[in-house]
Every structure is written in structure tokens, then in C-alpha cells.
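Dear colleagues,

As part of the handover before I leave the project, I'm documenting each prediction I ran so the next person doesn't have to rerun anything. This entry is a single chain, and its sequence is reproduced below.
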Amino acid sequence: MKRPAATRLIPRGAFWRWLALVVLMATAALAAADGLALEDGGRFEVRSAFLEPAEHVYLLSATIDMALSRSAQQAIRDGVPVAIELDITVARKRRYLPDQEVASLTQRWRIQYHALSERYLVNNLNSGQQLSFASLSAALEGLSQVRGLPVIDESLIERGQTYEASLKAVAAIEGGLPNALKAMMFWIDWKHATEWYTWAVKP
């Protein structure tokens, strides 16, 4: 009679270590999702933004208040990756017809703590460029100042027409969490967004 194959058991110590890790990451992620972008006395909002032509391209300059909550900052320190996304649109205003979108751009960064180097890494997910910061506050300060971001070719902006640009920032927990953790916390809203900031663009 053929004996059934032996079942491979997970060592009890390894199981409890795995469970403790899942609980720790769940706590950090829950804390980040609970207050991803609302620090006491601070706000998560676009403070200012404008487009200016330079070398036949309109460049975006913006200042964003990156006041992440203490719990969100602690989550980043615990290794939870957070993405910062900028959504930019430019539309031509029309009196009797819906506005015509002439440009749309999404710029994304990922901020994550690297335990071995004890540095905060900010990866530009559009260009692949990586910057390293000694502190989380320095990394957030760097992200809050957007300068010289190409948005639209100057030839697409016609003189005599009226244009509006809009900018929104989004902070979201990145997809670097274990699948088991995602399944356990599928009900959480992982994103927090600013209101749209809109201004006139002068050709």
C-alpha cells in the first residue's frame, strides 16, 4: 500500500515571525492610510502653480504643501513605499462648446526608506532618476518644490485663444506590499488627493 506523501509543515517559530511581520506592516499601512496627508496644523494642497515658456516648451513650476501625518511618516520609516503623483491638464476654453484638452501629463515619484543606507530614496518613475536624502523632511521638501517640468509644446498654444491649466497632487501607498497583506486590507482607501488648482495660461 502506497503511503501518502508527507505534508511539509511550517516551523512554528517561522510562522510566528511571519505573522508578526504581517501585523507590523499592516499596522504601519493602516496608520498611513488613516492619515496619509493631514499633519496637525498642516495641509496637503497645491499652494501655487504657473506655466512659462522656455525654449519652445511650457514648463511647470509649483509649490505643494506636503504635510504628511505623523503616522504616515512613521509608516514610511517602517518601509512602506508611498507614491506622489501630479496630474496636469491644459485645456482651451470655448464659449459655446466644451473645453478642448490640448495636453495631459502624469508625473510620479516614489519615496521609500532604505534601511541599509539609512537614506530616504525618491525615485522619479517617469525618468528613472533617483535622489537620496538624509531625512524624510528633506525628501518631502524636495518633492514639494516642482521646477522646470515640461508640460506642453509651445506650438500647441495659439495666440488669441484662452487656456486654463489644472494641477492635482495625489499621495498613495505604493503596490510594494505583500499580497497577503493586500488581501487582508482590501477595503482601505490608499489614496489622498488635493483639490484641483486651476489658473489661466497666457500665450
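Residues 35-201 form one domain. The first helix runs from residue 12 to 34.

All the best with the project,
I.
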